[in-house]
Hints:
Layout: H1 7-17, E1 24-26, H2 34-46, E2 52-54, H3 62-74, E3 80-82, H4 88-99
Parallel strand pairs: 1-2, 2-3
Amino acid sequence: MKNTCTGADLIIENIALNDETYTAAHLDTYPLNDRQVYNLAEALKKNSYLNYINLFDCHLSEGNLRLIIDALKKNKGIKHVIINEDIGENLFQEIIDAVSITKLSPKL
C-alpha cells in the first residue's frame, strides 16, 4: 500500500521542524485522523516558534481534543487557537487555560 501525504501532513511536518519562520499553522477544513492528531500533538510539544493554529472544521473528537490540549499546555508559544467543534464549556476553558499568556507578578 502506498503511503500518501496530505496537505495536513505537510503542515504537521512543518510544525515538527520547529522552524523560526513558521509561526502560523492553518489546518482549517482538513478533517484530521487519529494518526495526524497524534503527530500534531507531538509536534506541538516540541515547537517553540508557532504562535497561531487554526483547527476550524477539523472534525476533532473529544479524545483528540484532549491530546491537543495536553500539547498546548506544554507549548508556551501558541497564543491563538481557532476551533469550532462543539466542545462544551469545560474543554473550552481548558483550551483557554492552556494558551493563556497573562501571568501576574506580585508587587515587590
